[in-house]
Amino acid sequence: MLAGPLLTRFAIWPWWMGFLSCAAGSMCGLFLLLRLPWRRHKKSALFGALPLLPLLWFLTKAISAPPHNDISTDPQDPPALIWAKQLRSSQDLPVSEGPLKGLADNPGPLYTSALPEEVIGSAERLMQAKGWRTIRTPNGLQAVATSPWFGFEDDIALRLRIGREVRVDLRSASRVGRSDLGVNRERVVDFMQELARELAKEAPAAATTRH
Q: Cα dist. 9→5, 17, 125, 196 in Å?
């Protein structure tokens, strides 16, 4: 069970081999669960069921999450993944240039009267606190987030548009897989909520709203 994610994380084999390894471990757990008598070996049977938990979690997420892997608060005009174009290999998914397919509960942008440099500073500190690699661009930030288990890398773009207020848009896209199991949407929602709280603390005189 542990070999699959670890070998995927260190790029020794492709991500789908890691999933197959986990599935094989889960099947072994199911075999043990069915073979061991419950009445005489309850504790052993429970241990045999443990490898099934990751598979059950995966199936639950796969059924409940829409098949998306690229989420933006502005699906019609998403922030450009500038850094991703340089970092992605031929084995990764190509960067989508056009409009994205929005969700029924698509996360919205953030509007604030804070200064652009305050927004960029707060966003950059939040990203780095999460362990994301970041670079600055003329209108925002680019970042890469790495998952703790399989080591999957997702590309992130934060864009500011300055008008009467500063509009903040965020995009998060997976490099592999046709479905992200809801990870990108969750990342966008969580980050925008945290950014709104940080701006409220660091620039209390500025009004910040989420749409």
A: 6, 11, 26, 33
